[in-house]
Amino acid sequence: MLLWDADYLRYFVRELFPSRTTGATIAAGLVSDTQSLTIVSEMPEHGVIFSDGTEADFLEFNAGTRAVVTVAERHGSLVV
Q1: Sequential DSSP letters for 8-73
Q2: How many CB atoms lie within 10 A of CB 47?
Q3: pLDDT of 32 above 90
Q4: Is the pLDDT score of 60 beyond 90?
Q5: Residues 6+ apart with CB under 8 A from 17
Q6: pTM of the full predicted structure?
Q7: CB-side neighbour CA atoms (13 Å) of 5
Q8: Which residues contact residue 42 at a Cβ distance below 8 angstroms, ignoring those fewer than 6 apart?
Q9: Band of the pLDDT at 20, cuts 50, 70, 90?
Q10: What pLDDT does 14 receive?
Q11: Residue 45 reports pLDDT greater than 90
C-alpha cells in the first residue's frame, strides 16, 4: 500500500516488450531520495513515455532519449 505522504515512488512497466536484442529485466521498482531511475530509449521511432496512465500527456521518447525519474523536493497535497 502506498501512503499519500510517502517519500518514495513505485513504478510499474505497463507493457513490457522484450525484443531479441534488448531483453526486458525490470518490470517494477522503487524510486527514493537516494535512488533515481534512469531510462534510455532504444526504440527508433514512435516511442513515447508518460505517467499516471494518461497517454495524452506523452512525451516523444525515441532512440537515445534519456529520462531520469526522481522524487520531487516539493510535495503536493490531496484536498478532499
Answers
A1: SEEEE-SS----TTT-----EEEE-SS--EEEE---SSS-EE-STT-GGG-EE--TT-EEEE---S
A2: 15
A3: yes
A4: yes
A5: 24
A6: 0.72
A7: 1
A8: 22, 63
A9: confident
A10: 74
A11: yes
Q: Which of 58, 10, 18 is nearest to 35 (CA)?
A: 10
d(CA 14, CA 11): 9
Distance CA 51, CA 65 (A): 16
Q: Which residues pair with 59 in a beta bridge?
A: 49
* Cβ atoms of 33 and 71 closer than 8 Å: yes
Average pLDDT, stretch 25-46?
90
Distance CA 71, CA 34 (A): 9
Residue that has been written with the C-alpha cell 534519456 in this structure = 66
Residue 46, by phi and psi: left (phi above 0), alpha (psi -120 to 50) or beta?
Answer: left
* Cell numbers for 16: 513490457
